[in-house]
Here is the input.
Amino acid sequence: MGYTTQMDAARQGIVTKEMEAVAAYEKMDAEALRALVAKGQVCIPANKHHTCLKPYGIGKALKTKINVNLGTSRDCMDMNVEMEKVMQAVNMGAEAIMDLSSFGDTQVFRRKLTAECPAMLGTVPIYDAVVYYAKALKKITAREWIDVVRMHAEDGVDFMTIHCGINRHTAERVRACKRHTNIVSRGGSIIFAWMMLTGQENPFYEFYDEILDICREHDVTLSLGDACRPGSIADAGDISQIEELVTLGELTQRAWDRDVQVMIEGPGHMPLNQIQANMEIQQTICKGAPFYVLGPLVTDVAPGYDHITAAIGGAIAATYGAAFLCYVTPAEHLRLPTVDDVREGIIASKIAAHAADVAKGIPDADRWDYEMSEARRELDWERQFSLAIDPEKARRYRAESKPEHEDTCTMCGKMCAVRNMNKILRGENVDIME
Here is the structure.
């Protein structure tokens, strides 16, 4: 093949078939894309064993991508239901699926995904290790943690969240700083607890070079996990978050030195006024590596509506540098999402991603909006439905409230400004009260 990873190929001047596909999708020159991959400013998660993959690029110069978190849990372990969510997400345009299964035969589900799902696939090995070994947390050895990373790579996972930025030094900082909501990252809390129970260094940090060897062999993109992401706006931008980000910046360079692709995970909960600065700090510390954010959720008071709080933050974050939005559903903080929750979360994230693409001038991003406004001007309802981000809902809303006249809706009736302007500019009578 002549290269080991997408980054290795790019640095050799090779445009891979994955780069060609991404460049075509982004409507950009393949050589320009190759240069961004070589610099680490774009990653193309594409495990060599994921043969049904439709590749996508992740980077601030590209269209903003979205990720959908799914997976079984002890309380909801029906793999068929989770697979239904996966296929719905793919059909709705999600570019990535992250399997966060924490119960049952997780490898069966993971292998089913890599065999059947064309989206980029991510996992968090630390979750799976707890399930796979089925023993007390403090009994899991450093070697066993690393072995699960290898297993996921061999199963065909395209990117993995590895919580390697929270080493013993950072963990002590967390204890000293007395955060308002402590650590809310599931993986971060697990490895923090393991370090406290065993007195050992975080194995993902201590044996980072071995993880890089695994990623290089299978071309797995490292998603450097933010164990210290803020879980409340009170903790946004605190010492623990920034100190971990500095460590992730150092680990990014070490990965790039081995031709391993990297993206950086970010907040979390964060007030609106801090988002731009946080994106710019990340871009500086991590030298332009793609930023992957959960939200950010801009307020803590909206359980049941956190897909909205996350979409607000996500649109701002992507405008100022985030490249990858992890969706948030209405069920966030409350339960495992249902199929309907997944749908609502995806739509909210897609709106945020598109709004950011328009704001940052992604080529042709505003063409979609131009065509929709054109259809509205012409009162072309069918075209409006076909262009809608959620055609089914748009069509249903109109059907549920049918107007007396087809060229109006039940909001304005014959007072419709669009209808009346069209008529008067065509030289026709405006019959508002007739």
In short: The chain has three domains: 6-359, 364-400, 404-434.
